[in-house]
Specification:
CATH topology of the largest domain: Rossmann fold
Strand content: 5-15%
Mean pLDDT: 85
Distance between the termini: 62 Å
Radius of gyration: 25 Å
CATH architecture of the largest domain: 3-Layer(aba) Sandwich
Number of domains: 2
Order of helices and strands: EHEHEHEHEHEHHHHHHH
CATH superfamily of the largest domain: Response regulator
Number of helices: 12
Shape: elongated
Number of strands: 6
Helix content: 40-55%
């Protein structure tokens, strides 16, 4: 017995894109998807999903005036089981992240070829999540960045010292590298730990790794 096609709705204010995608899904993947309807208005998105009993909604994030993220929230509030694929024609990382936090089950740039949407759409309909690789790399990189306020509070000497601490270097070796006495090195380490808000060297090293600073700091200082 053949499974029923997934019911899809499209929320996009670019009429030609929506119609083209509808035609593509219907002609090329009609055994997998049936497009129940489309709207160019964010305010109509949740009603359309409910009326069609949609399995999946494809939503453009850059829809005025409320934006696609609002549509995602409305849909998820009324019908949590409906899966959502968010699309965007911009490279706004913050908007993509906001969409995912609002409940989108996948994100792809509109630069992706329409033919390439069927696979991710089916994957999302099956209950898995899909995210563009470039966006994923950017999100991971963004979440690992140290808070700007913390970096602003550290001098070049502090950063160099942090790099040495992160390698597990002992006080004597740090003193030799920093061209200071061991007593001074101990004071410098204590001051750095205070600035970082941690109580020991292990925590300082872990923080460097968590923020993705370990390699950068080590390369800058030439630490091996």
């Amino acid at each position: 017995m053949t499974a029923k096609p997934y019911v899809v709705v499209i929320v996009d204010d670019h009429q030609l894109f929506a119609e083209g995608l509808t035609l593509l899904l219907t002609r090329e993947w009609g055994e997998l998807f049936t497009v129940c309807g489309q709207t160019t208005y964010v305010e109509e998105a949740a009603d359309l999903v409910a009326r069609c009993d949609a399995d999946v909604a494809i939503i453009d994030l850059s829809m005025p005036p409320l934006g696609g993220v609002a549509a995602i929230r409305h849909i998820k509030a009324r019908r949590p089981r409906t899966r959502i694929l968010a699309l965007s024609g911009t490279e706004d990382l913050g908007l993509a992240e906001e969409a995912l936090r609002a409940g989108a089950d996948g994100f792809l740039p509109k630069t992706a070829r329409p033919e390439a949407l069927a696979g991710p759409l089916w994957t999302i309909a099956e209950g898995l999540r899909v995210i563009d690789g470039t966006l994923l790399d950017a999100l991971l990189s963004n979440t690992r960045k140290a808070p700007p306020a913390l970096l602003d509070s550290l001098s070049a000497q502090d950063l160099r010292l942090w790099a040495l601490l992160a390698t597990g270097m002992e006080t004597g070796d740090i003193a030799a590298r920093m061209l200071v006495s061991e007593r001074t090195a101990k004071r410098m380490v204590a001051a750095l730990l205070h600035k970082l808000g941690v109580t020991n060297r292990v925590a300082a090293a872990a923080m460097a790794g968590r923020f993705g600073l370990l390699d950068d700091l080590a390369e800058t200082d030439g630490v091996s």
